[in-house]
Prior knowledge:
Order of helices and strands of chain B: EHEEHE
Structural class of chain A: alpha/beta
Strand content of chain B: 15-25%
Low-confidence stretches of chain A: none
Largest sheet of chain B: 2 strands, antiparallel
Radius of gyration of chain A: 21 Å
Bound molecules: iron/sulfur cluster
Strand order of the largest sheet of chain A: 3-2-4-5-7-6-12
Low-confidence stretches of chain B: none
Strand content of chain A: 15-25%
CATH class of the largest domain in chain A: Alpha Beta
Helix content of chain B: 10-25%
Distance between the termini of chain A: 56 Å
Mean pLDDT of chain A: 97
Oligomer: heterodimer
CATH class of the domain at 40-98 in chain B: Alpha Beta
CATH topology of the largest domain in chain A: Rossmann fold
Strand order of the largest sheet of chain B: 1-4
Amino acid sequence: MAKRVGIEVSxxxxxxxxxxxxxxxxxxxxxxxTHIVEHLSELVADGELDAEFIPVxxxxxxxxxxxxxxxxxxxxxxxxxxxxxxxxxxxxxVASGMRLPIVMTVANRALSAPISxxxxxxxxxxxxxxxxxxxxxxxxxxxxxxxxxxFRVAEDRKVSLPMIVNIDGFTLSHVIEPIELPDQADVDRxxxxxxxxxxxxxxxxxxxxxxxxPEVYTEARMAHDQAIKNAxxxxxxxxxEFEEVFGRRYNPVEEYRTEDAEIVLVTMGSISETAMTAxxxxxxxxxxxxxxxxxxxxxxxxxxxxxxxxxxxxxxxVDRTLAPGASSGPVGEELRTVFYKxxxxxxxxxxxxxxxxxxxxxxxxxxMVDKAASYAKKRPxxxxxxxxxxxx
Amino acid sequence: MAVQDAIIGWKTITHxxxxxxxxxxxxxxxxxxRSMRPVVDKEKCIKCGMCYIFCPDMCYSQTxxxxxxxNMDYCKGCGICANECPKDAITMVxxxxx
Lengths: 392, 98
Ligand code: SF4
Ligand code: SF4
């Protein structure tokens, strides 16, 4: 039987990587991801995980090392955060373009300047278009489950793309939660050994990462785009199989009390838990409020989202990123596109909240719902609004 | 400007753009922008192979007689072989000259 233990989420993620029997871990420590790789290095040093732990000089080197090891056919894991993800940026695009199924945890954190080690989604949103599959965890159990799911999906020959599991820095990474760590036998049943279609093998040489001349580049990008779009069905199928083996269900878009809801909050990551409390409170007060939580961010599950939002009159979309000079936050923009010219589409209002570790409380969610309700009657001047910002 | 045509479709392009045929770069002839070419004087050549070792494009191969010959499909005309030849057996000749 799988055991339920009180455990720090970072340690639990490292245990999940151990259960997945990763063969290579190359990572550089950065707050708030540190405990994950620290624990993995201990597991390797203590002989509990039969893997190569490769300490590297930077995040750029970490991900480059991962590209090499996964290309050689080894199950490969890394983790990073914030500035570290920025330093990886170049290699992120290399890994996905070359279809190298690396699994990475990103402990989401704000970006400098000013220097901030605290949680928001500005790091990952700068990498929105890096071509990796991306999911968001809401709590520690999901962080563990989505890590196993990521190996299952990324390495599937029908997908063969790298995958990022986003967990909120500190609010998830450093919190002790009751988490059910799956049994090894169940994980082995769920996750077959990594058998890539192509690998670097001196007996059967191939070249990876060649030049794409103008007569080829567009087609290569198109193939990548189609691959990540096609991946959606295998992502969902791997969640179906996850439910069969482990009994927990995951969906691209998770619904909470959306039946007959007129105003629906849209969140990603750990603030969804607070949002549920806020929805309960507002429901108790007779307000028709619901919540949609985006679990799958890339590829974006447009049709699933439209279906889940059916009947909603207003969407209050929360972005945990401020995109300076843009017309709205990335999630807000995405949903406006998804609903563009759709008959009966809800009105969409975009709120920027929870930047650089600022708490998003139940009261803040109530404020957003109230504002969205009033904006639905009288259009606001701006396309987005920063919640809880002090003026003077 | 002429319309630029794709040489492969997105449905048929290899996974991750991998090149599955080893050594296929040799199909890609890259010597067409050379302005000078190396000419070997067999009278002076001692078959030492320095040109073969130093050519950055690996153009040289040995003939049956033991001399070294540069493949003009790939030679860029950089002149390194001429510079390195211990017997000054290689002369760089402008392409427009016979
Ligand atoms: S000129 Fe340069 S490229 Fe040509 S054969 Fe000599 S060394 Fe090689
Ligand atoms: S380096 Fe000069 S002497 Fe030596 S093999 Fe080449 S051409 Fe002949």
